[in-house]
Design brief:
The protein is α/β, with parallel strands linked by helices. It has eight helices and nine strands. 39% of the residues are buried. The mean pLDDT is 94.
Length: 231
């Protein structure tokens, strides 16, 4: 058990990925546009932030089509998702930088034997190479990705699944929803985690504080959480 600022107690911590651990949103946006612009379905960065950020790839493509009054079949959707995944792998080869303090925080929590999970709308194939680059793959007990759920954030399905799996693999720890903390950067992520009964720490990496007010605690940087205490 650890105590974060404002007295928030954590028996387990679940991290979002994009916008919390690494800033891959511009890279996802670039990969989407490489596919959608030739189809006449491209959109601006502002539209991505306001509408698409927080969606998994499946719902992001559906929204891009729906926004133009179009529908997309299951096979075509699957092909677009696969193509985007390949493009994203090429894009991340240019290098990835973690947000300040987050790798140190993850390693410190892992050293303190706090159960850790990732709950992300990204694909597992997007996440694993980056975790390996940052050398933090072994810190996480559970990885929940777009591959595991039928509904993306703000639906609580992904966080419910992350909590349930974390509880089942860390049976030596007493884990409850009330002392499990999600670390998020988007309003949709906060709604998702809160809907699963979790406490939420929001970091202003992607949105300003006024958009994150439903979180239990808001910080400008995760390095401010490094002063946690254990008991």
């Amino acid at each position: 058990m650890v105590i974060f600022p404002k007295g928030l107690k954590a028996c387990a911590v679940i991290f979002d990925f994009d916008g919390v651990i690494v800033d891959t949103e511009p890279l996802h946006y670039k990969a989407f546009q490489l596919i959608l612009e030739p189809l006449g379905l491209g959109y601006s960065w502002e539209q991505y932030v306001n509408t698409y950020m927080g969606f998994d790839d499946r719902d992001a493509f559906k929204e891009a089509y729906s926004n133009k009054g179009l529908s997309i079949g299951h096979e075509d959707l699957s092909n677009l998702i696969a193509t985007k995944a390949k493009l994203f792998q090429d894009v991340i080869k240019s290098g990835i930088t973690a947000y300040p303090g987050v790798v140190e925080l993850i390693n410190a929590l892992h050293t303190s034997k706090v159960p850790l999970a990732i709950c992300s709308g990204a694909l597992l194939s997007d996440i694993i190479p980056i975790l390996e680059m940052l050398d933090i793959t072994d810190c996480f007990d559970v990885l929940i990705t777009a591959d595991d759920v039928s509904k993306s954030k703000p639906d609580p399905e992904s966080y419910q699944l992350a909590f349930n799996r974390l509880s089942s693999v860390r049976t030596e720890s007493i884990i409850s929803t009330s002392c499990t903390i999600a670390i998020e950067d988007t309003p949709a992520g906060i709604i998702s985690a809160s809907g699963a009964g979790l406490q939420v720490i929001a970091v202003t990496n992607s949105y300003s504080k006024e958009h994150l007010t439903k979180a239990n605690y808001i910080t400008d940087s995760l390095d401010q959480l490094l002063s946690f205490s254990t008991f």
